[in-house]
Amino acid sequence: xxxxxxxxxxxxxxxxxxxxxxxxxxxxxxxxxxxxxxxxxxxxxxxxxxxxxxxxxxxxxxxxxxxxxxxxxxxxxxxxxxxxxxxxxxxxxxxxxxxxxxxxxxxxxxxxxxxxxxxxxxxxxxxxxxxxxxxxxxxxxxxxxxxxxxxxxxxxxxxxxxxxxxxxxxxxxxxxxxxxxxxxxxxxxxxxxxxxxxxxxxxxxxxxxxxxxxxxxxxxxxxxxxxxxxxxxxxxxxxxxxxxxxxxxxxxxxxxxxxxxxxxxxxxxxxxxxxxxxxxxxxxxxxx
Length: 288
What we know:
The chain is an alpha+beta fold. The protein folds into 3 domains: about 5-70 and about 120-145, Ribosomal Protein S5, domain 2; about 75-110, no CATH class; about 145-285, no CATH class. It has 9 helices and 4 strands. The protein has helices spanning about 40-55, 70, 75-90, 100-110, 130-195, 200-210, 215-235, 240-260, 265-285; strands at about 5-10, 15-25, 30, 55-65. A 4-stranded mixed sheet has the order 1-2-4-3. Helix 1 (about 40-55) runs parallel beside helix 5. The chain is elongated, with a radius of gyration of 34 Å.
């Protein structure tokens, strides 16, 4: 959801620069950081931003740069004198030549109301189409930036989903070893106790015991969740929230596999799957 776009609009008297910045966010939080935009255009611009960008913390900046003729404005001498007086009273200034005087005057000329400003009238109905077009160009840029980021995110998260499935295949390889280890451990414990047991009853109890550690259901469900993840990310226009729910279900199956593992090698694979899933979770927050 991150991105940046910039465009310019030439209007009579100068140039309007449009900048749009987008950061990750759950909703469309739009901030128009400029006093140049007419009030009657505020809702129109907000809707345009929300329709194109959908979600994120979105900041719109408008700045105006007058041309040489427009910049030559009359000076409000009363305001200039007032600011100069306040500066001298606050900090006694001992001007030592033309350079120091020019620096002080340059700073004061930037203060409010020193020069006649007509910022409220800069964007008018006549030049609004040019400004609106510049906003559209900036949106095109930011959407292009997002698409580029989206392709990188898609490659990353889908490769990690495939990695989780590959790790689960390694779990399957260790399943037979796990069953043999559990059986051997129980038989060794019986030998140490020197207890006589009915072989058929022992085998029956062994089956019941091993069923508690069976992970076939988790295996099937995790594969289904991974398949659904890929379908959603490929087909949904804005899949972020749905992907979040699927990731929760994937995590539940991986956690259950870990609780049933009873095998050091499988536990290590579960930790690696959790690490991959957490990276998927973090990256999915950047997806619309």
